[in-house]
Amino acid sequence: MDDIAITDREFQGYRKFLYEAAGIQLTDSKKPLVTSRLSRRLNALGIRSYGAYLDLIVSGKEPGERQTAIDLLTTNETYFFRESKHFDLLRDLASRAPAGRPFRVWSAACSSGEEPYSIAMVLADVRGSSPWEVFASDLSTRMLERARAAHYPMERATHVPRKYLERFCLKGVEDQAGTLLVDSRIRECVRFAQVNLMQALPELGRFDVVFLRNVLIYFDLETKRGVVGRLSRVLAEGGHLFIGHSEALHGIAGGFETVMPTVYRRAGVSSVAA
Q1: What pLDDT sits at residue 2?
Q2: Cα–Cα distance measured from residue 257 to residue 206, given in angstroms and rounded to the nearest whole number
Q3: Is the dihedral of CA 70, 76, 82, 85 positive or negative?
Q4: pLDDT by 10-residue block (mean), the chain, 274 residues
Q5: Crossing angle of helices 8-22 and 31-45, rounded to 10°
Q6: Hey, which residues are catalytic here?
Q7: Main-chain phi, psi angles of 46, to 5 degrees
Q8: What angle in degrees, to the nearest 10, is found between the helix axes of 8-22 and 63-74?
């Protein structure tokens, strides 16, 4: 399959498919990404062109294969405690929150789970006996399976504070050397589910903090407004929205106050339409 090129027409078909399925805009520079992500799958299925595979996933005859294609095209690498300033602020917010009700956090694009487990470690540390909840979602079912397994290469844990490594992680030995397993006390406190941010959200309740990091960069303006609008309605008044270091809400959403670059506080009812 490596010597089979994707045509411009086929690539345009994948652009349309991914935008309709996930709201993600593929630029022309992403053509090599499409081929690198899909070539092994085509080879496994014995399909000899990218066009034939596109026909398969858009036909609706194989919904499982459609989800596989989405998984392959939307997967992004991450690591524990990425952008440490966010976790410093989370620690402060959680420690000051009322003890009598759950402090709720949503990792809205959790990928393989490092982000929600990082959140859970912080909350387990600072909330003590006070209640807290972490909900984590992703569009990719494959990533959600990895997240639930909570088993990672040790290099993903470079930024985990040592006290958290010792308290909340199990170091692999023998044939598992070079890996870590998140302790069951943390795993059991994180609830995972598939959520498509492009669609109306299920009943989730209100959150004190929502992490939506390194997601908006893939969307066009209209899609960004819709996604942020939906999330703003499940964010408690005074709640915080964390986004990626290359993202901003300027021109996207009303009803937010800037706390620091990439962190916003919901000041009132958002004016963004879904």
Answers
A1: 52
A2: 18
A3: negative
A4: 80 94 88 91 92 93 88 83 96 95 97 97 96 96 94 94 96 93 97 96 97 91 94 95 91 90 79 36
A5: 90
A6: 37, 138
A7: 75, 25
A8: 100
Q: What is the number of other CB atoms lying within 10 angstroms of the CB of residue 130?
A: 16
Whose tokens are 């062109």? That residue is 49
Give the number of other Cβ atoms within 10 Å of residue 226's Cβ: 19
Question: The tokens 């022309």 sit on which residue?
Answer: 28
Q: Is the dihedral of CA 149, 155, 161, 165 positive or negative?
A: positive
Q: Decide: 73 and 138 in contact? Cβ < 8 Å.
A: no
Which residues, 6+ apart, have CB-to-CB distance to 92 below 8 Å?
Answer: none
Helix segments in 80-217, DSSP class H: 84-96, 114-126, 141-149, 162-168, 184-187
Tokens, residue 115? 């982000």
Structural tokens at position 58: 């858009």
Select from 235, 233, 223, 236 the least CA-distant residue to 196. Answer: 223
Phi, psi of 135, deg, nearest 5:
-110, 135
Q: What domains lie within the chain, and their CATH numbers?
A: 8-74 (1.10.155.10), 84-266 (3.40.50.150)
**Do 246 and 240 meet the contact criterion of CB atoms below 8 Å apart?**
no
